[in-house]
Write a structure and sequence with these properties.
33% helix; 6 helices; Rossmann fold; alpha/beta
């Protein structure tokens, strides 16, 4: 699928980054299934779904769909269209609609749960892990620690919103990227804009 096909899907993944994400996901899909932490309305999910279909595998999409801190009422990234009848943030209906519209339901397995709870009970080995969840340090550390151990050898870990300059945002993603590099479990596999990729040793 062309990257421009999903221009009407809400999200925070620029077209150029989406294309690079697909390239890395295709490498990871040769090792095992794909999993993303933080699906929002499904923009990255749909890109990964195309890769998964080509590789005859699946994408596990982990998100509680209640939004991160920045998505809540009154915060910078809040979207009034993504609220339930009680006025609470809820991206799940939009996410499911996008999967249906783009015929991705056959390769995407949504896990509607907090990341740290899902990770605690996870047993399936993975070939590709995309971390794009909450940007608090606590949330990012939980995502990294909870999921990275499930990557198979030669599997790829990709982290979004990594910025060297703290003023640009992404301090927590930058922290877990550094942690992964220093762990001895990964080697750097590339960088593109705010994306960083590491290969499991």
């Amino acid at each position: 699928m062309a990257t421009t096909e999903f221009e009407d899907v809400k999200g925070f993944l620029p077209t150029e980054e989406a294309e690079k994400l697909r390239q890395w996901a295709a490498l990871g899909a040769q090792v095992g299934p794909l999993l993303e932490v933080g699906s929002y309305c499904g923009l990255s999910t749909l890109h990964l779904a195309g890769v998964a279909r080509d590789a005859n595998t699946v994408v596990f999409a982990v998100d509680h769909h209640r939004g991160s801190e920045e998505h809540q009422v009154g915060e910078f990234f809040h979207d009034d269209a993504l609220t339930d009848e009680q006025g609470n943030f809820d991206s799940l209906p939009e996410f499911r609609l996008n999967l249906k519209r783009y015929q991705a339901e056959d390769v995407v397995i949504p896990l509607v749960a907090p990341s740290r709870i899902a990770a605690r009970h996870w047993t399936t080995p993975l070939g590709f892990l995309f971390i794009d969840g909450g940007h608090s340090l606590d949330a990012a550390l939980a995502d990294y620690r909870g999921w990275s151990s499930h990557l198979l050898r030669d599997g790829l870990l990709v982290i979004h919103d990594v910025f060297t300059n703290a003023a640009d945002g992404g301090q927590a993603p930058h922290a877990i990227w550094q942690l992964a590099k220093q762990s001895g479990l990964f080697e750097e596999a590339g960088s593109f804009q705010s994306l960083r990729a590491l290969r499991r040793l």
